[in-house]
Amino acid sequence: MRTKDFEKAIDALNLGIVIDEMKLRHSNVRQVTGHLENEGIIWNENGKAFSTTFEKRESKDNGELVGVLGKFLERNSFYDLKFDRL
Q: How far, in Å, CA of 40 to CA of 59, rounded?
């Protein structure tokens, strides 16, 4: 599947997902990584989604972000992509 197909399918979810990385194999998408404010999402080459929640750690002194911890990935069909077949 091409990168344009993945971009269109992710935009069609209308959730404001930011695409962070696309891994390619011979010009076809192998994996896509994206995120929302507090959730990370990974899609495989078929558009099946897996997600994890983020836990932000802030400094007690000044409230600045110190780090972000993620939990285990879980299968999440809510974010599955639907590709238009022509």
A: 22
